[in-house]
């Protein structure tokens, strides 16, 4: 485990970075542009570790430049930092307060965190497109909900909007497919993932982007990353209801749930699904369990480089909803 002599927390916004050192008063503001960030990074002490929250695209420039400068970089789950701040009893939320909270979190938790690694140019493009696709999907769903039962006078415009969304998603999917085809390694790995029953083009692209970026130690680690892992809520002899942690990417959870919906009707997984239902699990619970099984299979296929073989599906079932 690498030892650090300084812990720096950075609150990132579109135009500005606010940086703070752990156990030091004061903050520094830096414009969120390459020149200013590079100049500031070169002034940091050797052996410093730097952390920031994941903010979509605004943190990516800082993370990339800091990693190129030789610093150990950590991109934190914003939800973890939020609850950590509440546990500290933070009485305010400002950029300066957030920077100090991030620095303290890094100092206390760095041994349990995974350093961020810069993706390849192709993978970065794929991840950006996948993020944009998820935004388009969620916005379309929200519009569908809000425009239900709209006036007949605007029905044609609503239909045209839906067609425009479909065209956008089709264009994004085509671009993602081209990027995978142009990269021999990623293309081959995506093809392996698509050998899994139920895993289609969208699921395989998302899984490939995750598995290529993060080195998971086991299939269970991938399940936990997705947020499909059951969260215990026990006290003494009381065993509370299990709920999903939902700590990972919503897009990954959605795609794996859809993959499970597809797989449950196939010869390879129909028996598994029916057995789960016979145990008393509801439809959604059984599909979540099957989604977890697909994630573990995806990890095994990725790690071994061998296509999915239905004959090798483990017979033991995870029955935790």
From TrEMBL:
It comes from the Bacteria. It holds the Pfam family DEDD_Tnp_IS110. Residues 191-268 form the Transposase IS116/IS110/IS902 C-terminal domain. Residues 8-149 form the Transposase IS110-like N-terminal domain. InterPro entries: Transp_IS110-like_N, Transpos_IS110, Transposase_20. This is Transposase.
């Amino acid at each position: 485990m690498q030892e650090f002599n300084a812990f720096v927390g950075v609150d990132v916004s579109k135009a500005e970075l606010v940086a703070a050192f752990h156990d030091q008063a004061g903050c520094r503001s830096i414009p969120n542009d390459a020149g200013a960030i590079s100049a500031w990074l070169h002034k940091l002490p050797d052996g410093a570790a730097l952390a920031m929250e994941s903010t979509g695209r605004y943190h990516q420039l800082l993370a990339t430049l800091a990693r190129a400068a030789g610093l150990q970089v950590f991109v934190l789950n914003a939800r973890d930092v939020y609850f950590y701040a509440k546990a500290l009893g933070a009485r305010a939320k400002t950029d300066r307060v957030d920077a100090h909270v991030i620095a303290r979190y890094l100092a206390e938790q760095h041994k349990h965190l995974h350093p961020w690694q810069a993706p390849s140019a192709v993978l970065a493009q794929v991840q950006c497109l996948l993020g944009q696709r998820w935004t388009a999907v969620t916005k379309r769903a929200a519009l569908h909900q809000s425009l239900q039962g709209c006036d007949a006078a605007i029905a044609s415009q609503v239909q045209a909007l839906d067609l425009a969304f479909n065209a956008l998603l089709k264009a994004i999917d085509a671009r993602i497919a081209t990027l995978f085809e142009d990269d021999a390694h990623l293309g081959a790995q995506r093809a392996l993932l698509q050998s899994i029953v139920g895993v289609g083009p969208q699921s395989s692209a998302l899984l490939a982007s995750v598995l290529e970026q993060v080195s998971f130690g086991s299939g269970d680690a991938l399940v936990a990353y997705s947020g499909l892992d059951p969260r215990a809520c026990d006290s003494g002899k009381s065993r509370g209801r299990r709920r999903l942690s939902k700590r990972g990417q919503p897009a990954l959870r959605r795609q794996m749930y859809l993959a499970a919906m597809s797989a449950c009707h196939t010869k390879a997984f129909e028996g598994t699904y029916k057995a789960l239902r016979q145990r008393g699990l509801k439809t959604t619970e059984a599909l979540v369990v099957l989604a977890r099984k697909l994630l573990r299979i995806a990890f095994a296929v990725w790690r071994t480089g061998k296509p999915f073989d239905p004959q090798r599906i483990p017979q033991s079932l995870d029955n935790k909803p």
